[in-house]
Design brief:
The structure holds two protein chains of two kinds.
Chain A lengths: L1 H37 L6 E2 L5 H4 L1 E2 L3 H8 L1 H34 L3 H12 L6 H12 L5 H8 L14 H26 L3 H9 L4 H12 L1 H13 L6 H5 L9 H4 L2 H10 L4 H29 L7
Antiparallel strand pairs in A: 1-2
Helix pairs in contact in A: 3-15, 4-8, 4-11, 5-8, 11-15, 14-15
Chain B lengths: L1 H32 L3 H7 L11 H8 L2 H33 L6 H13 L4 H11 L6 H6 L5 H12 L3 H9 L4 H12 L1 H16 L3 H6 L8 H10 L2 H4 L17 H19 L4 H11 L4
Helix pairs in contact in B: 1-15, 3-15, 4-8, 4-11, 11-16, 13-15
Classes of the chains: A mainly alpha, B mainly alpha.
């Protein structure tokens, strides 16, 4: 009996210690994640800085109404989902394709060089990327205007020309994110036991067959997981890509305004706090439903690939 | 055999073209920073400078006031931020890995739920600026990005690879949980600390978004945010160049276009130079992260 009590108090002491170890992060999450969740009530208020959250008058659903009745609602939602869909499809296909090709390279040194070169944009901030795009797109000195000039096309101010930006955005995103995606896929391919390839070759399999029947299937689990993660974030745009690379040019908003930049603009430029919070709440809620939904579907199809 | 080498040639050519596509943009920025202002004005940006001219760098280093200040702010947050961050996240990850902890599932859920749902930018902005009064402080530059839940789950996966017998024998020897954490988990998690530490370091070094939202004071500009301001308006930078030697002071002679790119090189350079050497840590962190935890 005595030992049992002793053991129990021993475990209680440990539990207290463990709780203390967890507490810094718990406090952080409480302040910076859970308090803002409570703060979504701002979406239902006519928020004024001088009155604070509790002092501001209730506004019912008028903030949501204001947003959904504007033409912006459809535009930013469609832009966000469309760009992300293209990123997901193109990003996944290109990453698999390049990783499979890299798997065919035998020279270790060459692999290292190719990988490092493709990976380094990952380390650049979107600000530096915007400098890079500016060297190409600058209306006065840019390389692109010099090149198209040789074809006899007049210099263009690309930052005033929305129709071309979907191509620029997709290209820049691919440039920045491809190295990382290839790296993940290639790390999986490296882990494949060489014996599979050897025995298949002995049976007369061609190089294409090896890639198609051995390498490609190995990539499916990691691809599915990355796919769920990305689809779950289909409502969240990469703020830096759409804000920095476009230099936040108002002329481009029709094609480059996404939910995240819209909320930012509501807060910092339009001073529509309540409406911005409503859009943010809409984004978080739909995002939440999509994550849960995708995960449920994946769990049905391939339970071992589900995230939770 | 002949067919195989032909295929190899095609693959290598493909990768070489890709690599050129990846490096060309960087070459362009560096090349503009090394050009003379007159060449830029006459001929535009070039991939290869017509004449090599270091005057942009001379101007940057002759009056480094603002950029030096931003360097100090960024170095400070990039050292202190990741240190605190990795330490508290490792503590949390350790608790997540402890099966004897009664509330393990509860705290795992508390953390995980923040990945699924968030209050959004505006409630957080109001909280930080109106209630916590962290706007325009060094504090917000440190606090933003301190905890990334996904990284804590990666860390937990790492810790779970430590054989449980080690912890059990430490428990029998009467070691407290603090003791086990400090003298067993921390030393045994060094590779994990390196991996996650690098992820976080990169976040702090490249952070322009926190100052964009929360900072207006020039003294608190991070490097990347300073750069952003410069791209939008170079004058913001050149107007503050009051300490130039007298022969460089004539503002009409300041080589604006090239200084802009030189500043980009000076700010992005160090990280770009260091990071490829740590590529293997990134790969490890990513592959563990992709395993269901």
């Amino acid at each position: 009996m005595k030992t049992k009590v002793g053991k129990r108090s021993h475990y209680t002491a440990r539990n207290v210690q463990l709780f203390l170890l967890a507490s810094p992060v718990l406090i952080y999450l409480f302040i910076f994640a859970y308090l803002p969740m409570g703060g979504v009530i701002v979406a239902f208020k006519d928020y004024r800085y001088d009155k604070g959250i509790f002092g501001s008058a209730w506004a019912g659903f008028s903030n949501f109404e204001f947003f959904f009745k504007s033409r912006d609602a459809f535009m930013v939602t469609a832009n966000t989902v469309a760009y992300n869909s293209v990123f997901i499809v193109l990003g996944t296909v290109v990453a698999i394709f390049v990783a499979l090709l890299m798997n065919e390279v035998r020279s270790k040194l060459a692999i290292k060089v190719y990988q490092t070169t493709m990976f380094f944009p990952h380390f650049l901030s979107w600000v530096v990327v915007s400098f890079i795009t500016y060297t190409f797109l600058s209306p006065t000195y840019g390389l692109l205007n010099q090149w198209v000039g040789k074809l006899g096309i007049e210099p263009t101010n690309w930052y005033f020309m929305p129709s071309i930006w979907p191509y620029f955005i997709v290209f820049v995103d691919l440039w920045k994110s491809m190295g990382m995606a290839v790296l993940i896929n290639f790390a999986v391919l490296v882990g494949i036991d060489r014996a599979y390839y050897e025995s298949a070759s002995i049976d007369g399999a061609s190089r294409w067959q090896l890639a198609w029947h051995i390498s490609l299937p190995t990539l499916i689990p990691v691809t599915v997981i990355l796919f769920i993660l990305k689809v779950g974030h289909i409502f969240n745009a990469d703020f830096g890509l759409f804000y920095q690379v476009t230099k936040n040019s108002p002329m481009l908003y029709d094609k480059t305004m996404v939910i995240d930049t819209y909320v930012f603009r509501a807060l910092m430029e339009m001073n529509e706090i309540g409406m911005g919070a409503a859009v943010g709440f809409f984004q978080a809620l739909v995002g939440f439903i999509i994550v849960i939904g995708t995960n449920a579907i994946v769990r049905k199809i391939r339970s071992d690939s589900a995230l939770f | 055999m002949h067919k195989r080498s032909l295929g190899d040639l095609a693959i290598h050519s493909y990768f070489i073209i890709l690599c050129v596509l990846f490096t060309l943009p960087i070459v362009a920025v560096v090349s503009v920073s090394l050009s003379s202002e007159a060449d830029i004005v006459n001929w535009g940006y070039k991939l290869i400078p017509r004449t090599i001219d270091f005057s942009a760098y001379q101007y940057v280093f002759a009056d480094p006031g603002q950029i030096l200040n931003s360097y100090i702010v960024t170095l400070f947050t990039s050292i202190v931020g990741p240190t605190i961050s990795v330490f508290i996240m490792l503590m949390f990850a350790y608790v997540l890995s402890r099966k004897i902890f009664k509330y393990r599932n509860a705290i795992a859920f508390i953390a995980f739920f923040t990945m699924l749902f968030n209050g959004g930018l505006i409630p957080k902005y109001i909280l930080v600026t109106q209630y916590l009064h962290l706007g325009n402080t060094l504090g917000i530059l440190l606090v933003n990005g301190l905890v990334t839940v996904w990284y804590m789950f990666i860390l937990r996966t790492f810790i779970q690879q430590i054989p449980e017998e080690i912890m059990e024998s430490a428990m029998i020897d009467g070691a407290s949980e603090f003791r086990i954490f400090l003298s067993l988990v921390v030393p045994l998690s060094k590779p994990a600390i390196a991996t996650i530490g690098l992820f976080i370091l990169l976040h702090y070094w490249n952070d322009w978004m926190t100052p964009l939202i929360y900072v207006t004071d020039h003294k608190l500009y991070t490097l990347q945010y300073l750069l952003q301001r410069i791209l939008l308006d170079l004058q913001e930078y050149t107007n503050n160049m009051n300490n130039l030697p007298s022969d460089m002071l004539d503002s009409s002679k300041i080589p604006g276009e090239t200084i802009r790119m030189a500043l980009a090189v000076v700010s992005a350079g160090p990280m770009l130079f260091i990071m490829p050497f740590f590529q293997k840590y990134f790969v490890r962190g990513l592959t563990v992260g992709s395993v269901k935890g």
